[in-house]
Structures are given as structure tokens and as C-alpha cells.
Amino acid sequence: MQVYDIKTDADGRELTQHGELDFPCAFYDEKFSEFVGQEVPWHWHEEIEIVMVVEGSANVESLGTQCELHPGEALIINASALHRMTDIGTNDCRVLNVVLDPLFLAGSKHSKIYKRYFLPARNNTQFSVYKLTPNVAWQACAIDALSLAFEDLQSQNFGFEISVQSQLARFWFLFCRHEPNIFIHEQLTQKTESRIQNLINFIHQHYAKQISVADISSAAQISSSECFRLFKNCFQCSPNNYLLNFRLQQAAKNLLETQSSITQVSLAVGFNSPAYFSKKFKLQFGVRPREFRKL
């Protein structure tokens, strides 16, 4: 579904849901003349966006930077980067773009791939957009992979989801390999990484019990305030929210893989109240546990 009227909240965050829960990757084939105001207005979203110009030319602005895109060129727009695109050519600009949750490629926020190759880029305030041109060899290869992903997204032939994920992973790998400084900008110190590992290991091992921030902090022998700071810097959430999200992820897995009742599932992952569990589950996944099991 094309989105030509981009609606945002008061902070400029786009309200459109891109992709589905089980395939968090959305494809768009857009002409600027179709947009309200004939431009892509200022907005931002949690997902990474990759744009390729097919016809015409566009000017892309992000805070503190701007660049022009011409046919065959592509652009990476970082997660949470405020941006705007306008048509600057005589021909109606047409772009193909894909908007994807980093977890589409990384699998989980707990994975090494996310922590090493996505989170540092997300936290790098110097990286808002990155232009790729076919005149640079490795960028030409990345653009080729992106083009193949677009072809699969358009055709939707059997197995296209696997191919799209593979091609976009290839694209991101080339970006990581040739621009490593973007990903080491926010590398954690060995001491901090060890503390974080101890904290999340404790949560993963004890999430089914009633645990507090003080309990979590003690796993790394740090204060509760330091625990909050580490989680905020590394995961953009509090330890309580990390624990809640992990419990919900485990609950979703149990709903799909076991025949346990909703109450049994909620108790098994650390919730005392099935009603509270159902409320939080719907906020996370968009449907209640019983509906999720039927998907």
C-alpha cells in the first residue's frame, strides 16, 4: 500500500506502520507528484529507510546535511533521523524505497548482530544519511543487491521473503564492511560490555521470577542508578522495560509452541495477572494473546 499523505505526531514521528509483525519490511514505489504537497515532508520513524531513485532527481535534507539523488543512486536514512525529500528535476521524480525494522535482519535486540552492526549506527548522532553511487565499486554491488530486493518485493514470487532478507543483508554487510567507523563510533568499553552482559544474562535466566531493578543491578555489582544509565545508553529503555519486553517475547514463543492456556503462559513468564499480561501483550504485538495464537 502506497502512503502519499504522511501523518505524524506532535514530535514529527510518522504514524504509518511499515510492514507486518511477522515481516517488518515494507516496500514503496512512489512518484513525488502523488504526495500531498508534491514532496515528502519532514518526518522520522524508528525504522531504517533505503531509497533508490529510478527517474528524475531528488534533494534529501536531514538536520545539518543535504544531498542530491539521481537515477541509479541510493541513500540510507538512519533510524530516527528527521528527513525531508523534494523533487528538483524537470521530470517527475520516482523512487523505490524499503523501510525495515533492524530486527528484520538482526533477529533480536539480544543478538550480537544487532548489538554490533545496528545499535552503534543507530546511536551515532553523526550518521543521519549516507549516499551510495554506482561509480564506487562496492557501492555498485550494494545497489545491485538492493535492486534485486526491490524486484523480489515487486514480484512476490514464492520464497521472495527469504530472498529479500538475503539481499538486504548483503547490502548492509557491504555498508558495514566498507564504513566500519560508523559502527565503532559508540563501541562499548570492555568493562561496560561485561556489565551489560551480566545484567541481561540475569534477566534471561530469572525473568520468570519476581525480580526488581536492585536484583538486576546486583548481578553486575552496580547501583540501580548505574543500571538505569547502562540500559538507557545501550537499549534506549529502562531495565524494567527490557524485562517486560523479554517476558512478552518469551510469552509469544510459548503461545506458538505449546498448548498451555493463556493463564499458564502468563504465569510462566513472570506475570501475576493474566489481565495485565493480555493488556501489555496487545500493546506490544497489536493483538491479544488468544488472537496471536491464531495468526
Automatic annotation (TrEMBL):
CDD domains registered for this protein in UniProt: cupin_RmlC-like
Keyword vocabulary terms for this entry: DNA-binding, Transcription, Transcription regulation
Gene3D superfamilies: Homeodomain-like, Jelly Rolls
Stated name of the protein: AraC family transcriptional regulator
SUPFAM superfamilies, per the entry: Homeodomain-like, RmlC-like cupins
InterPro entries tied to this protein: Cupin_2, Homeodomain-like_sf, HTH_AraC, RmlC-like_jellyroll, RmlC_Cupin_sf, Tscrpt_reg_AraC-type_HTH
Listed transmembrane segments: none
Domain HTH araC/xylS-type: 197-295
GO molecular function, one term: DNA-binding transcription factor activity
